[in-house]
């Protein structure tokens, strides 16, 4: 390798300096790894081999001639010498003769694919290296190369930051997730913008929140533009300090992931206060001397290609609200006022006409008015002058303000779109009776049609006499650990908002539209949760049915201001959602009424147990069920109770027996009052011994309990007949149990008889 090439690489990475402390630490690890006393990183400098990092040797350099590493550098390969005394050339070296060194292994150190030195190890005794150890030494050489590269880049970066810290331009970097988060800012922010560097880096102070409300809108528009795919933007912002205001010119550039999502934003901020002050004074002076606007409704323009300047008439300036005397005729001035989403299209149309692909230049696009509003411009033009090579020299044309017409067209389109996704919501609900799923389907279209960044749809529910807002659909944001839990609740359809002492809650508490284009100044504003992206504009709309509040829609961060027209536009959607909410409540009420009637039809009113009809419905499904038994129960001498103490006492006895049945028998049992004093129990998945024991306990409890009724304490007994279902029908089993009951009565009552069938 020619020495001059090696020299350039060494100079490029500034390897003229002395030993590298970090590499010395690495060499100690290498020595430990290989169990060896000497380790070096060498750099070849002319006739000397500089020891850039060393362990086990005091010298800082050795002559290239006669160095073990010279062969490694010249041959550009790993060299391992197990025993230097056996080596033909090295055995006569003084360090070998004096038994100072017996082993050497060196690997080339490459930078920019040029061998500039070695990484080597040595020992005072012979030894061998395994293939794995040789590979490890090569890998360590690669690591040293990477380390030297990073060290050089670090020093260069420090130098660049030192230069930036002394410049009049502040470099800012934000990372974007669900919102922007400051990653870095140069320290000269305190000198240039008078903002505290430490507070900015600790997130105690936010750059965007130090701006005036109007500039916060401008900053948000910059962010929205980047989210829309606009790569570079420029804006003028005003920082509100306690005793002064500073105007900042912010040039920003967006960086996107492979999937096209915004990843980060880098910006350069400069103090533009003096320029803005002069501009403001000139504008104020010019407004006092402003001439009458031209009568023509058309604005005219004449563009000189060579000088890149445009001459316009007064009407053109009036359309965009700019003073004619101070109109900037540069293309840059015109392009900066075009809506970022329209710039690419307009440029393409002009270029196509300049290339001769179209006979005229015609376009409709949005431009920013001096008052901050967006107006629609319709422009026509054509090339009016060419040079001898047919190259365009001048274009001329007209501008017309078509804002009203365009807004009407957009509203008509949006009306159709709104109607479409209202029908979509209804159809989605009718398909599967899933209101939350229907709301989630239309939420992205709601966000799009409302020109917003965030939205949610909620329904008011009453639980434990308090009002809650159940969230059917919401923009999913993972802000921090706490809010991730909220997202999990939402995905599980368990997300409720319970506190209404805030901006969106004022919709619930007042039942009225809430529109705030500066939320921080609203009386109900309580800020946003930690980690939540800033809310620059908010609109909350109540959903009502027959004058009663049943839910709401929340929207945030529209490109422009929210207005009552926006609220009126979305009224059909509110009515449609209200109708769905109402229909669902009606369906719930109908279903509850049906359930109640069903329970009433299947329940015995006196005992609260299943009635005879319920018993036969249940038993119909038990044909040929194994381990199933029917027990018929009859209250002994029940007619005597009624005759002696009255029917009220008989009812008390029925209720007492019913309660004992429910308390003592397992939940697996089916209990029914068959009529009068007769009851039937179905035991399932139980053996005969278990069934008998439960019935015996029941019989003893009834016999021992005193029943208080009409001032008397009564005791009664019961007789029980039991039959196994086995392979019989339910009706046959019931007959067998009834026969066994009859037998129990015949044999003296107050006993259990099992059917022998």
Automatic annotation (TrEMBL):
Residues 361-414 form the PAC domain. Its EC number is 2.7.7.65. Gene3D superfamilies: 3.30.450.40, 3.30.70.270, PAS domain (3.30.450.20). It catalyses: 2 GTP = 3',3'-c-di-GMP + 2 diphosphate. It comes from the Bacteria. The keyword Transferase applies. InterPro entries: Diguanylate_Cyclase (IPR050469), GAF (IPR003018), GAF-like_dom_sf (IPR029016), GGDEF_dom (IPR000160), Nucleotide_cyclase (IPR029787), PAC (IPR001610), PAS (IPR000014), PAS-assoc_C (IPR000700). Keywords: Nucleotidyltransferase, Transferase. The keyword Ligase does not apply. This is diguanylate cyclase. It comes from Rhodanobacter aciditrophus.
């Amino acid at each position: 390798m020619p020495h001059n090439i090696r020299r350039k690489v060494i100079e490029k990475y500034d390897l003229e300096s002395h030993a590298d402390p970090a590499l010395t630490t690495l060499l100690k690890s290498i020595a430990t790894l290989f169990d060896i006393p000497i380790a070096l990183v060498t750099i070849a400098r002319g006739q000397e081999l500089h020891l850039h990092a060393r362990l086990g040797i005091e010298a800082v350099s050795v002559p290239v001639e006669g160095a073990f590493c010279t062969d490694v550098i010249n041959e550009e390969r790993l060299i391992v010498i197990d025993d230097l005394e056996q080596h033909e050339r090295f055995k006569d070296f003084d360090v070998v003769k004096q038994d100072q060194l017996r082993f050497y292994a060196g690997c080339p150190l490459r930078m920019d694919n040029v061998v500039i030195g070695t990484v080597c190890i040595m020992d005072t005794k012979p030894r061998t290296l395994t293939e794995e150890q040789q590979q490890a030494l090569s890998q360590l050489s690669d690591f040293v190369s990477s380390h030297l590269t990073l060290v050089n880049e670090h020093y260069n970066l420090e130098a660049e930051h030192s230069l930036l810290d002394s410049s009049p331009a502040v470099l800012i970097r934000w990372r974007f997730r669900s919102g922007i988060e400051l990653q870095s800012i140069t320290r000269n922010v305190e000198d240039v913008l008078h903002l505290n560097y430490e507070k900015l880096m600790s997130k105690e102070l936010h750059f965007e929140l130090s701006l005036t409300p109007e500039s916060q809108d401008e900053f948000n528009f910059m962010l929205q533009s980047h989210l829309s795919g606009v790569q570079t933007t420029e804006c003028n912002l005003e920082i509100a300090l306690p005793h002064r205001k500073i105007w900042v010119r912010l040039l920003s550039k967006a960086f996107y992931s492979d999937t096209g999502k915004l990843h980060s934003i880098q910006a350069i901020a400069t103090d533009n206060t003096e320029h803005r002050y002069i501009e403001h004074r000139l504008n104020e002076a010019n407004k006092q001397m402003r001439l009458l606007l031209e009568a023509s409704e058309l604005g005219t323009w004449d563009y000189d290609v060579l000088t890149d300047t445009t001459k316009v008439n007064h009407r053109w300036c009036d359309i965009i609200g700019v003073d004619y005397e101070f109109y900037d005729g540069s293309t840059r001035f015109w392009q900066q006022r075009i809506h970022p989403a329209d710039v690419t299209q307009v440029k393409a149309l002009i270029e196509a006409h300049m290339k001769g692909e179209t006979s005229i230049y015609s376009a409709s696009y949005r431009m920013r008015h001096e008052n901050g509003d967006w107006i629609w411009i319709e422009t026509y033009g054509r090339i009016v002058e060419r040079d001898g090579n047919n190259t365009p020299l001048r274009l001329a044309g007209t501008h017309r303000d078509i804002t009203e017409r365009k807004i009407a067209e957009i509203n008509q389109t949006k009306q159709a779109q709104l109607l479409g996704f209202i029908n979509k919501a209804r159809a989605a609900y009718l398909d599967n009776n899933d209101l939350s799923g229907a709301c989630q389907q239309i939420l992205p279209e709601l966000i799009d049609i409302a020109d917003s960044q965030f939205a949610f749809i909620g329904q008011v529910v009453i639980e434990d006499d308090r009002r809650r807002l159940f969230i059917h659909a919401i923009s999913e944001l993972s802000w921090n650990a706490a809010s991730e839990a909220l997202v999990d609740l939402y995905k599980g359809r368990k997300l409720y908002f319970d506190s209404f002492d805030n901006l969106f809650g004022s919709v619930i508490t007042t039942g009225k539209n809430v529109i705030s284009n500066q939320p921080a100044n609203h009386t109900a504003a309580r800020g946003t949760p930690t980690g939540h992206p800033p809310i620059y504009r908010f609109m909350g709309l109540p959903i009502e049915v027959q004058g009663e509040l049943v839910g709401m829609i929340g929207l945030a961060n529209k490109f422009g201001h929210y207005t009552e027209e926006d609220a009126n536009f979305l009224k059909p959607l509110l009515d449609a959602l209200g109708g769905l909410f109402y229909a669902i409540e009606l369906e719930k009420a109908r279903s509850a009424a049906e359930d109640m009637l069903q329970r009433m039809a299947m329940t015995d009113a006196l005992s609260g147990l299943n009635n005879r009809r319920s018993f036969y419905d249940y038993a119909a499904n038990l044909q040929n069920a194994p381990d199933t038994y029917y027990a018929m129960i009859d209250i002994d001498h029940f007619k005597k109770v009624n005759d002696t103490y009255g029917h009220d006492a008989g009812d008390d006895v029925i209720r007492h027996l019913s309660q004992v049945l429910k308390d003592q028998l397992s939940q697996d049992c089916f209990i029914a009052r068959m009529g009068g004093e007769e009851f039937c129990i179905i035991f399932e998945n139980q053996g005969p011994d278990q069934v008998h024991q439960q019935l015996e306990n029941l019989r003893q409890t009834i016999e021992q309990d005193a029943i208080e009724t009409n001032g008397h304490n009564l005791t009664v007994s019961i007789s029980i007949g039991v039959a196994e279902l086995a392979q019989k029908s339910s009706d046959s089993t019931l007959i067998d149990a009834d026969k066994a009951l009859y037998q129990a009565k015949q044999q003296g009552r107050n006993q259990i008889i099992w059917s022998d069938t």
